[in-house]
Amino acid sequence: MSDEDNKSLNQSLISITDEMKKSYLDYAMSVIVSRALPDVRDGLKPVHRRILYAMIEGGYDWSKAYRKSARVVGDVMGNYHPHGDTAIYDSMVRMAQDFSMRLMLVDGQGNFGSVDGDPPAAMRYTESRLARSSENLLRDIDKDTVDFIPNYDESQSEPSVLPAEFPNMLVNGAGGIAVGMATNIPPHNPGEVIRACKALIDNPDLSLDELMEIIPGPDFPTAALIMGRSGIKEAFKTGRGSVIMRSRAEIILTGKNADREVIIITEIPFQVNKALVLEKIGELVRDKTIEGISDLRDESDRNGMRIVVEIKRDSQGDVVLNQLWRHTRLQTSFPVNMLALDHGKPKQMGLLEILNAFINFRFEVVTRRTKFLLNKARNRAHILAGLMVAITSIDEIIELIKTSSDPENARNLLCSKSWPAKEVQGFIDLIDDPSHQIIDGVYNLSVLQAKAILELRLQRLTGMERNKLEKETEELSEQIKEHLIILSDKSRLTNLIQTELDEVLKRIDDPRRTEINDSAVDHDDEDLIQKEDMVVTVSHRGYIKRVSLSTYKAQRRGGKGRSGMKMRDEDTVTSLFVTNTHTPILFFTSSGMVYQLKCYKLPESAPQALGKPMINLLPIEQEEKIHTVMPMPEDESSWEKLQIIFATKNGNIRRNQLSDFTNIRQNGKIAMKLNENDELVSVIPCGEKDNILLATRLGKAIRFDVHDVRVFVGRGSSGVRGIRLKPNDFVVSMSLIPNEEKRFVLSVTENGFGKRTPIEDYRKTNRGGQGVANIECSTRNGPVVASYVASEDDQIMLVTNSGKLIRIRVHGGEGDSIRVAGRKTQGVTLFDVDNDEKVVSVALLNESDDDDDDEVEDRDTTEINDAENKNDS
After folding, report:
1. Domain for residue 201, yes or no?
2. Is residue 194 part of a domain?
3. Is residue 633 situated within a structural domain?
4. Active-site hit among 60, 125, 443, 600
5. Mean pLDDT by 10-residue block, N- to C-terminus, for the chain (873 residues)?
6. Is there a contact between 674 and 592 (Cβ–Cβ < 8 Å)?
7. Is 152 tagged catalytic?
8. Helix (H) or strand (E) holding 847
9. Distance between CA 364 and CA 79 in Å, rounded?
């Protein structure tokens, strides 16, 4: 269709992208402003505000009988909130739950749900009315205190905000998810919040620390404990923070001899489902994550909550309780995000900003109410002035009415005639309206006054009624003077607001429920685990375990030795180190991730046990491989001095401080940013005097000084080039060359050939070159599987794709050593593989192995002592 055709049809072309942006933005703002976020002034979302307003309009007051909830929902949906009865009823139910609201706003009768997550009964069964505390949100709503806006079909009007007498957003909190933003505000103690408002009105320069002496933190309806104050202060200061909640629990002794420990839990954190917590504890016991529980009971009743956890005789209640806090929601955090609408705009607000916004709103409400009452008093004085004219000139007025043809004619005659004003002067002073003045002793009636005279009953003409008019005039005079003083004197307005806050405080104040414990929750189970030296062993197939060092030290030297780890036929120990139960251990994977486990979280086993697969201990993907297991030094002050170096398959290399890899979360962190089709090959600790050796699949190797790689800050870099690779080539190994020891470069190829070459044959070059020849990758040899810097005391283990395994000494007896040869040679046969068989993995074993059971040296003890000495250094 042409542009001319579009114009003839009053159509225009628009960009679908622009239209989508505009429409989505309109939708997002509608959700933010009209549904999801509370207003900082009354702390309510539109649905809650409409429920309360519909209830007061329908007469469902706290002092009257309960009414069916379905009736309330129908009023709200029909008049104000056309979003479905389920949304309305769910919102009303929450306002009636004492475990959800710090100060209930709806008084419900019937089943309104439970802390176990039981749903409420249908709205046709439950009854409700306004709670007494809602009176403090709705009072004076009919006195022009707030603006009214049209409802959804513009058939009625509804309040844009309620004239709240207390900061409901802080008292009851709020939660909601909008588009691109969310809010999560914890509840606070009503009395503390009102006292803070009073203090802030008295001293607007009050600091946050001074304010926190009045409001120490949130006060949850389910009580429990808050651990630490740092999260509270951060939330109060910035509007964002995390508050750690913990159940209230007590360990008591039971049994005939008071030898059995029992954990009694009487309070749980806010918004935690008790039934799900009990179910989770049962799962943990079945999975043997927690092994010290013998029985679990829920003894809660109408008198309060009571969860009983019986402890086994051989277990400690403190340890089990700590495990419950760590594995269940008996300890959880409340992510504070105090986002609210301020003048219609979403805003992140701290405690001071919220209180100041409410105080400013309160000043506005009281000012508007005072102006309304002033105008109402003046309007009444205006009517009284007309009535006084009628009383003093009653005969003339009666005659005028009698001669009038109709009421309208009588009203016009009354307004057009001038009347004696000797009785009206006091009323005129109250009215303070230039259009109604006494001129030359006479006074003209207004239309309203004339209408009031025509509706005057004969009984008002008695002397008693005249006295009532004069008395009412005096009262109006006092009221008008008081209103004028309040409007003109800021201190009187402030005193009035303070007085009203005191009255609200008397009605809704109650003791704090949540106790704030100054001790922060920084500890883990390790606080209840004794420090002990452990021997950690890692196998070639990825099994890991820990064994108490004392198990090995108890042996005498000169014996036959003992098995350090039960091995499958195709497996062997590749790493062994001694560390403390509290020491963090880092696990680096092929995808560039790093995970951390404390040593005590590794499976503790007997010396002969197999251990557990590391893949079952860490949340890694199935195709990921763990390339490096590295214990952190026990001395944390040394972390800033020590360094580690990374190498990737595509030849990149990076050096970092070890301190960059502390505080690793449970789901891990990115250790090194990898480019597409790249993976991490190796991570090793390095010293200032070390050389780096990178070996590639196609038989190249490069040696350079560790100082050629600068120390990177942070973990987000992909590093620098370590070696320039040819097409189809990639790095298979990285090794360190200590300067002080005589070493060899030991290389093994796919077809089972290998050799060792003196390290001196590999000259130092600059980082980033193509390197030198390492081993001849001929058709006979095949590509390189691995290259290591080895000593004569080491061994290697070769594994083929068919599962065959061979273990070889680097330097054995006569004719049993791996030959020393030049860099460009092909090497000798290490493993006689079949035609369709390939070597797929090589492990360097830094140990002196002897399979002869008659050997008198205790090999295990020697290895462990060596590992312990290395760890100490």
Report:
1. no
2. no
3. yes
4. 125
5. 58 79 72 81 94 94 94 94 90 95 95 94 96 94 94 92 95 88 93 96 94 95 92 94 94 82 94 94 90 91 92 83 89 94 91 96 95 89 79 80 85 78 63 60 76 77 71 84 91 95 94 87 55 79 81 46 48 73 87 88 79 82 82 75 89 89 82 88 86 92 91 83 92 83 85 90 90 89 90 82 80 71 86 85 65 39 52 48
6. yes
7. no
8. none
9. 28
